[in-house]
Amino acid sequence: MLIGFNQTLVVALYKQIGMGSKSAAISLSLVLFGSLSAVALSLPFQNSAQKVLAQEVSPSCPLPVAIAITFLDSKCKKVKLLMPQTFFRYYSSETNRKGRYLTTDQYQTNVEVIRNLALNQAWGNKAEKMLAVTLPAGTTVYQGIVAPQNPSSCYPGGGQQTFIEDSKDPNLSWAEGPTLTLQPLSCP
């Protein structure tokens, strides 16, 4: 069945094609192409390249979903700091030095950081250096447990995670932390 076509027009064009009319053949082709294009464009678009997550998404965290899913079971708690508090930031280059993801956990090796903070190595953060960052009293943070990343055998998560909305806030105090022991990451 032809959807949305004027069947009388199609039949008339088809008969003219049978009599050798090139213009009728072209007209029929254009009618069919235009109608099929309209049908195709009216279908709902589905992106087949969906991100594969290591957990279900059901955010009970007052952050956008893209951030909430970095917390285990998408759960985080909004906290206003009552006094200054020091956190740690692990990084490997200037491009990821001062970021919004922090932790209260202090690790000795880069492999501990990568695994416990689920730093998928495709993202580029090799966790070779550490910063200590002190947030002033009154700062709002979001805290929870790090969610696993795929493959979860390599990036199981489970460390403490603190998210800040503005890592460029001039009231934050950033300082180089102790040197990490660098080890090769072995991922099954």
SSE inventory with pairings:
Elements lengths: L6 H12 L3 H21 L22 H4 L8 E4 L4 E7 L9 E2 L7 H7 L12 E7 L4 E6 L14 E5 L8 E4 L12
Antiparallel strand pairs: 1-5, 2-4, 3-6, 4-7, 5-6
Helix content: 10-25%
Report the average pLDDT across residues.
Answer: 80
Strand order, largest beta sheet: 1-5-6-3
Q: Assembly type of the shown chains?
A: single chain
Principal-axes geometry comes out as: globular
Number of domains: 2
Radius of gyration: 28 Å
Explain this structure to me?
The structure is a single chain. The chain has a four-stranded antiparallel β-sheet, with no helix packed on it. Strands 2-4-7 form a three-stranded antiparallel β-sheet, with no helix packed on it. The protein is globular. 21% of the residues are buried. Helix 1 packs antiparallel against helix 2. It starts with 6 loop residues before the first helix and ends in a 12-residue tail after the last strand. Helix content is 23%, strand content 19%. It folds into two domains: 7-42; 65-176, no CATH class. The chain contains four helices and seven strands. Residues 1-14 and 24-51 have low confidence and may be disordered. It has 188 residues and is α+β, with helices and mostly antiparallel strands.
